[in-house]
Specification:
heterodimer, A: alpha+beta, TATA-Binding Protein, 4 domains, eight-stranded antiparallel beta sheet, 11 helices, elongated, B: mainly alpha, Four Helix Bundle (Hemerythrin (Met), subunit A), 2 domains, 8 helices, 73% helix, flat, disordered C terminus
Chain lengths: 464, 273
């Protein structure tokens, strides 16, 4: 065939190329585990000379597994696989289709004495006996009459295993294709949703902007539970998925149990308590009994004496190591005044005498005649969701199944063919056993040994 | 705890078995071989009992799970798989010489699990990421693969030491070659399954079937090394010495995947605890 002479073709048809590419993939992967990658690389790059860092960045060393080098290796490997497979296919097909009596070269030449028997029965009886024996293990038997007094019977197993290695290589192609599909059409991002809040867009990984979702996610509740030893036991978000204002799915989301919706998968990834909880703010007017009001950041409420309005500007879990505090802004006829209201104001005064006089911002009685006290900040959890679309995943899963089937066929099966020649030799009948396999000769040897033992036993029984 | 006590005694049984196997090889008396075999059998029985007790104890603690969830448990299971596979090989090839080379691995794994100061032998509850049905299948397949590679490695070492006149009863080079090949294949199939089950689990737990985490990457490196080894045999007819070298190189990749990677940061770093 002319294609054998094509230098391009013969380059890709080489098994040396395969081994070289596999070794290069190994080397690249090792480098990729020792040099920090992606997010971890940023810190690493700051610790080395900037010239070197930018050189390595240009070479895509900080994201090797998504680099042009890795892509090129996979492309070459893929082409190598295709060309090798095409090159070998005609021979495999010929062997697969091959008729049993197409004269294997030297089939019955140089047989060891253990594979040759002599018996007193005639050819017909012996043939019947051996056919029974052979078909027990090899199923369908074919027969070929060579001469008047000589014939060959033939049995085979594992004919289809010749294709197994192609199945493995096809699965690798599908795997690479699936991975590419994921890389080009897939995306991954994160979103934090506070309890009671909704989100309809996510932040894409690696700072690649935001992405709108085809549905809205509402976090109804987040729950975390711990074991007695303090290790986390359960992270759970109760979510509602909405589309056009209608609930399309509602239920809990747990680690290891993602929710799948419209080709998009949602995972429980992290959690935290949000700084935008609600403050319980107590206030009294002129020493008289006051009231407690619950307000969130940005919200405001009117003072009962109609002197003005109070707005919550900031909410801090722990302001300057002095505990929870809110910054409030009072708007009145005299203008605006803003100051901090602590929960532990008595303790702060005790530890820093005169602090509210020196730092008026810390004086909860700055807007007279009111006195504000922070009763507490309600903790509000947010759930951290990972949102992913990977259209290549089903292909990768199919590739995995295919690969397993192919590997089992490649390693644990082989095309074993057995020929038994029965011929008249003077007063006796001569039996010769020949066998061929495409791989795993040890297994064939064992099978032939087993068969010859059976023949021996059968002949001994027959002659008595 | 009862199970850790039993398991630490197993270490000594395996060490004893190794010494007996060595006596057999050097003195040429089959008596030592029998003694070694019974020591291994007793050790494996106690080992199995220890694992089952540990499993039962975890249920008594109210955090029931298969004993396959932390570094200590993985070492114990690895050793169990290695010794188990060894007994099968000894029975199959009717030759006890390999014990000298395999038992030290089983013994060292057990000793490391029992004695290393930073390895906790406590039964720990499963954190949310580990609460998966894939945990068991992933760990079992991976360590069956590691065990097969360990046996291939031991045969590889035996291949290079077979001509030392002190040692007797070592099988022919051809037999060793075939055994190396068979165990490399067994390991390769189990490693493939291990990577696949791990990928499925990662798909459900971390949102991606593959994240290039160092342990994943090193499992791929190991897989590729054995793939090269098997291709070289099938297509280029590599045999004997070269296969023995590849079995040793492959095993060092296995060790790095299992132990070395824990010193690199990544998703599997919970093993450090």
């Amino acid at each position: 065939m002319p294609k054998q002479k094509n230098p391009f073709w013969s380059f890709f048809a080489s098994v040396y190329l395969t081994i070289t590419l596999l070794v290069l993939t190994v080397v690249l992967s090792i480098v990729g585990t020792f040099i920090p990658q992606q997010d971890a690389a940023r810190e690493f790059a700051q610790g080395i000379p900037p010239g070197l860092a930018s050189f390595l960045l240009t070479l895509q060393v900080f994201d090797l597994f998504h680099s042009v080098w890795f892509f090129l290796l996979m492309l070459l490997l893929s082409m190598n696989l295709i060309v090798c497979s095409l090159n070998r296919w005609p021979l495999t097909w010929k062997k697969f289709r091959g008729t049993p009596f197409a004269n294997e070269e030297g089939l019955f030449r140089g047989l060891s004495p253990e594979h040759i028997f002599l018996c007193d029965e005639d050819v017909g009886t012996t043939t019947g006996r051996l056919e029974g024996l052979l078909s027990r293990k090899y199923g369908k038997i074919s027969k070929n009459k060579e001469k008047e007094d000589a014939l060959i019977i033939f049995g085979e197993r594992g004919r289809y295993s010749r294709f197994a290695v192609y199945v493995v290589h096809l699965s690798l192609q599908l795997l690479i294709l699936g991975a590419l599909m994921g890389a080009y059409w897939g995306w991954e991002g994160y979103v934090n949703i506070g309890e009671g809040d909704t989100a309809d867009a996510i932040d894409l990984k690696g700072g690649k902007g935001t992405k709108a979702l085809p549905f809205t996610i509402r976090c109804d509740k987040f729950m975390v539970a711990f074991y007695e030893n303090g290790a986390p036991k359960t992270y759970r978000s109760d979510l509602t998925f909405l589309k056009d204002g209608k609930t399309i799915l509602q239920g809990p989301l747990l680690v290891n149990h993602p929710v799948s919706l419209e080709g998009i998968r949602v995972y429980q990834a992290s959690y935290g308590s949000s700084p935008d909880g609600r403050a319980s703010l107590a206030f009294s007017r002129g020493g008289k009994e006051g009231e407690i009001i619950k307000v969130g950041p940005g919200e405001s409420f009117p003072l009962p004496g109609k002197e003005g309005t109070v707005q919550i500007v900031r909410l801090e879990e722990n302001l300057m190591q002095m505990g929870p505090a809110v910054k409030i802004l009072v708007r009145s006829g005299q203008g605006e005044v803003s100051f901090w209201v602590f929960r532990n104001i008595d303790k702060i005064r005790e530890m820093n005498p005169g602090v509210t006089e020196q730092v008026p911002m810390f004086n909860p009685a700055m807007f007279k005649p009111y006195l504000f006290v922070l009763k507490g900040i309600e903790e509000r959890y947010y759930t951290g969701l990972q949102v992913i679309r990977d259209p290549g995943a089903p292909l990768v899963a199919a590739a995995a199944v295919l690969m397993m089937v192919g590997l089992i066929g490649t390693f644990f099966s082989s095309h074993r063919r057995i020929w038994i020649k029965i011929q008249r030799l003077g007063e006796k009948t001569k039996i010769s056993v020949a066998a061929r396999t495409n791989k795993h000769p040890v297994i064939l040897d064992r099978e032939v040994q087993h068969l010859t033992e059976q023949i021996k036993v059968s002949l001994e029984k027959g002659s008595t | 705890m009862m199970n850790t006590m039993i398991l630490s005694w197993v270490t000594f049984l395996y060490f004893g078995a190794f010494v007996f196997y060595l006596f057999r090889l050097v003195f040429g008396k089959e008596f030592w071989g029998k003694a070694a075999f019974y020591a291994v059998l007793g050790g494996l029985g106690a080992h199995t009992l220890g694992l089952l007790l540990r499993w039962k104890e975890s249920y008594a603690l109210g955090i029931g799970h298969a004993p396959l969830s932390n570094f200590y448990e993985s070492l114990i299971f690895f050793a169990w798989a290695v010794v188990m596979l060894y007994i099968v090989v000894e029975w199959r090839i009717k030759n006890r010489s390999l014990g000298v080379f395999v038992l030290p691995v089983g013994f060292l794994l057990m000793a490391f699990a029992s004695l290393a100061p930073n390895i906790s032998d406590r039964i720990q509850p499963l954190v949310p990421a580990l609460q998966s049905n894939w945990l068991t299948s992933h760990v079992v397949t991976c360590f069956m693969g590691y065990a097969a590679f360990t046996v291939a490695f031991a045969i590889g070492i035996m291949f290079f030491l077979r001509n030392i006149s002190l040692f007797r009863f070592i099988p022919e080079a051809d037999v060793l070659d075939e055994l190396i090949y068979q165990h490399a294949v067994l390991g390769f199939v189990f490693l493939t399954l291990g990577i696949m089950t791990g990928s499925v689990w990662a798909h459900y737990a971390w949102g991606s079937y593959w994240s290039w985490d160092p342990k994943e990457t090193w499992s791929l490196i190991t897989w590729l090394i054995y793939a090269v080894m098997l291709h070289a045999r099938y297509v280029r007819g590599w045999k004997g010495r070269r296969m023995a070298v590849m079995a040793i190189v492959g095993f060092s990749a296995v060790l790095f995947t299992y132990l070395g990677v824990n010193y690199l940061p990544g998703l599997h770093s919970y093993l450090q605890s």
